[in-house]
Fold:
Amino acid sequence: MDRRVIIAAGHGGGDNGAVARGHKEAAECVDIVNRTVTKLRADGRIETVVVPHAFDLREQISWLNARFPQHESGYALEVHKNAGGSTATGVEAWYLTGSTEAGNKAKSVLAELARVSRLQNRGIKKDVDYRGGSLAWVRQTKPWAGLFECGFITHDHFNNDLYAEGLFRGLLKLFDLRDQAAQIYRVIRRSGVQLGAFSVRSNAWTTYLGVMGDAVILNREGIDVTAEFVNEFGDDQRIVGTPREAAGVIAGTDGPGEVIELDG
Structure:
């Protein structure tokens, strides 16, 4: 497969898609795509082609197939948001029924999307199981293709940079590439709101303390490194308990630790 991703935002052509909590699916998808493209182009190793946002689905597929008519022309990825269910949450991916390789490609990207977004991995789905019986994006596009649901618009967080980072990491994995970017640390509240992203570790720690530890610290790969920070900056912590106990509380295994005042 050519080292190329052709990426599209779902619900183009004036269709809002699902609407919930003051957010429109189409606008969220465009934002996630734009952020993913920025990361891919900054990395520079995967050719990145964006399907025009103004196109509807039929126009998207026609435009894509005219330019990339071969099965090995790259990976066609479409971004969506899920909706429905009183408690439904998580990320998932759809692939062409009957193609084990298409399923494996979608599974590879999805694993990183779930890990970085910190949402439940709902797994890969055959397009024949979609309520309409098929999905045009994975069935009619000529290159390899996958459709990715980046959280539930009805319940999950709107930290689109995490979804974009997850897709970026997943695409690196798909093309067997190692991340060359400098390490950054994201401070994420339990609600999913990102408080900041830092290259300087002490700045991440200061932000973490600013919310009394009601957060986690993730590295660029989406791995929880809170315990590592607690061990490094433990003399400066305001959360009661040993560093590892505090980190366990922060990671969400229990409620937030008791806060004590510092002298001075």
Q: What stands out?
A: Confidence is low (pLDDT under 50) at residues 237-264. The first strand starts at residue 4 and ends at 9. The CA atoms of residues 4 and 46 lie 5 Å apart.
